[in-house]
Amino acid sequence: MIKKGTWITIESVVLKAAERAHNLPADTQKTDLKKWVKGYLEEDGLIGSFVTVKTTTGRLEHGILTEANPSFDVNYGSYVPELKKICEQVRGLL
């Protein structure tokens, strides 16, 4: 059970696949357009349950609770050795 007031992430469907534009690529047309919103849980809930959150701007959003206390996971991809060489070359020129 996740308690009211906990910082969480919810997921909701903005457009169902059938409602998406017809000029999109075929694989995109077959997929729902979703959004993820972070906010404070308005009532106790469980992962996978439909809940309401209050965002930092005061909006109330509804969706499926996906994560409690979400972290900021940023990944810019794998290490590229060529970029290191380019960086060294640019520094040498400066």
Question: What's a concise summary of this model?
Answer:
18% of the residues lie in helices and 34% in strands.
Give unreliable regions as ranges.
none
Structural class, please?
Answer: alpha+beta
Give the beta-strand count. 4
> Level of helix content?
10-25%
The N- and C-terminal alpha carbons lie at a distance of 57 Å
Global geometry? flat
Query: How many separate helices?
Result: 2
| Rg over alpha carbons | 20 Å
Structure description:
This protein has 94 residues and is α+β, with helices and mostly antiparallel strands. Helix content is 18%, strand content 34%. The protein contains two helices and four strands. The chain has helices at residues 26-29, 81-93; strands at residues 7-15, 33-41, 50-54, 60-68. A four-stranded antiparallel barrel has the order 1-2-3-4. It starts with 6 loop residues before the first strand and ends with a helix.
Main attributes?
alpha+beta, 2 helices, 94 residues, flat, 34% strand, 4 strands
Please describe the topology of this protein.
Layout: E1 7-15, H1 26-29, E2 33-41, E3 50-54, E4 60-68, H2 81-93
Antiparallel strand pairs: 1-2, 1-4, 2-3, 3-4
